[in-house]
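User: What would this chain look like folded?
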Amino acid sequence: MIRGIWLLGALLLMPLASTASDKVTVALASNFSQAAREIADAFEAQTGHQVQFSISSSGKLYAQISHGAPFDVFLSADEERPALLEANGLVVPGTRRTYATGRLTLWSVDKRYEGKDCVAELKAGNFDRLAIANPKTAPYGVAAEEALAALGPDNQDLTARIAMGESIAQALQFVASRSASMGFIATAQLKLPDIPKGTCHWEVPEELHTRIEQQGVLLKRAEANVAAKAFLAFLAGEQARAIILSHGYGLE
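Assistant: Here's the prediction, encoded as structure tokens.
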């Protein structure tokens, strides 16, 4: 009896261990990282839950999830991959939704374009290298490829002049570091605090590419994760929506 009382007392004095439901692990498309961190700060302050991000291209994250990576929420830069995961039974039914819509911008920091028209320079082929995200792994890369096909330059094989980034974040890095003369980046990236001053930019009309709908899902492994459910609910709320808009994204 004394041993039982001692054991109970010891258990009561032990610090409570963090449980899986205290934390949400989010697989995050790289273009949304700045907005997501601000949303996570507000979420953690309000709920006490913790948010952990794994940031990469949507295609790489999709492959990792398909092979059993331990993520709770997937915030993709497209609608295709969340829909595929849902079709494969890896998503909690009814949780797939568009959390933001994206835009594409042609952008440069190259001094030769100072005061010039970015798209006119592109059409004329006046560039050494053009940065885009890899369309096989990044939805913004698909949009860039479609826009480039619509714009030209006419009758030019650009294969050797494309600087292919693994993600839209790397495409931005290529342009910002002048490894590429210009490039297609996410419009929202223009609001990053450390982005260098551009010399020209042109927001690509939405009719030149497939609409960029960024969708999020609750993954099946997190069906009972309170923090994961709360994070997705917070993402749909007014505070998070205001943050999303402030970072240059659209909303449905």
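The radius of gyration is 22 Å. If you want, I can go into more detail on any region.
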